[in-house]
Amino acid sequence: MASLLPPMVSASDVLRVLTYADLIPVIEKTLGDFSRGDGTVVQPVRTVIPVDQHQGYFLVKPGYHVAGDTMACKLLTLYPNNTDRPSHQASIVLFDSSNGSPLAVMDGASITDMRTAAASAAATKHLVKDSPRVHAILGTGHQAYSHFHALNHLYKFDQVCVWGRTPANVQKFAAETGATPCSSVEEAVKDADVITTVTMSRTPVLKKDWIKPGVHINAVGACRPDWQELDPELVLSSVVYVDSKEAAPKESGDIILSKAEVYAEVGEVILGKKEACKDKTTIFKSLGLAIEDVVSAKLVYDKLTSS
After folding, report:
1. 3-state secondary structure string, the chain?
2. Can you tell me the mean pLDDT for 83-97?
3. What is the dihedral of CA 229, 232, 238, 240, to 10 degrees?
4. Which of 61, 66, 133, 273 is most buried by its number of CB atoms within 10 A?
5. How far apart are CA 52 and CA 223, in angstroms?
């Protein structure tokens, strides 16, 4: 079967077969599997190697989904100062877990964009109040686009507002998606029922005083222990959910620097083990799980080999 695939599965191959209709339910189930804690999912906290000489990071994220008998590893680089290429670059190697042979090497950026947005969509499904009408997106990069499409798959918003540091990028995003361009964060979020933060900011961009009570926030962008997107006062006044209770206190600056307590993994809510506090402001702090890459790569592989 492996011979049916090229050595490298390109981004265009991934985007041709991977849809949110298929991916969101898979990621939702996988978040629940991760939170079972029964050995269904095997994955360590990701390894992060600082590349100080070039202000970058090299990450290694292996995982094994026992129930799905699927094994893969993502190799990811994060170079925030890149201007001539993406800040995030990645490849995912999918293995045959029965004999250890590699099945395919896949473009990891496209899978990462979609599975991250699918996780936010799954979290929003369980944590947001019924029938959200306004979605605010802070950021204009690849994750802004993927979250626009993933959340739009679940909800028919009356309005999607977008803000970014670079006005030209805000206008470009608005022109391509139909979103409403905003000149400030406060303007973008004041009426929002769902807020998604996908910036590369190292200091808070979203403040408690700007949002209405009971909003749901997908906090995606600050992926380092000393980076923040959310004002500490906002984090401390919200119910905080994460993808991994083990990783968040080690890797999330929004949690570490605010000294906030994590209420639950979103997978525990999916399993019915923890309450979805929809009457309060909720935050899903997403760091990304290796197992999300594993099951997404397997979904891509199955679709390519069956077509």
Report:
1. CHHHCCCEECHHHHHHHCCHHHHHHHHHHHHHHHHHCCCCEECCCCEEEEEHHHCEEEEEEEEEECCCCEEEEEEEEECCCCCCCCCEEEEEEEECCCCCCEEEEEEHHHHHHHHHHHHHHHHHHHHCCCCCCEEEEECCCHHHHHHHHHHHHHCCCCEEEEECCCHHHHHHHHHHHCCEECCCHHHHHCCCCEEEECCCCCCCCECHHHCCCCCEEEECCCCCCCCCCECHHHHHCCEEEECCCCCHHHHCHHHHCCCCCCCEEHHHHHCCCCCCCCCCCEEEECCCCHHHHHHHHHHHHHHHHHC
2. 92
3. 60
4. 61
5. 17
pLDDT of residue 130: 87
Asked if residues 300 and 17 have their Cβ atoms less than 8 Å apart, the reply is yes
Output the pTM of the full model.
0.93
Measured CA to CA, the distance from residue 8 to residue 113 in angstroms comes to: 18
Q: What is the pLDDT of residues 138-158, one digit of tens each?
A: 999 999 999 999 999 999 999
Q: Tell me, what's the pLDDT at 1?
A: 44
Phi, psi dihedral angles at 303 (to 5 degrees)? -70, -40
Mean pLDDT across the stretch 233-243?
Answer: 97
Q: What are phi and psi of 87, to 5 degrees?
A: -70, -30
Cβ–Cβ < 8 Å for 282, 241: yes
Averaging pLDDT over each range in 84-93, 157-166, 247-256, which range is the top one? Answer: 157-166
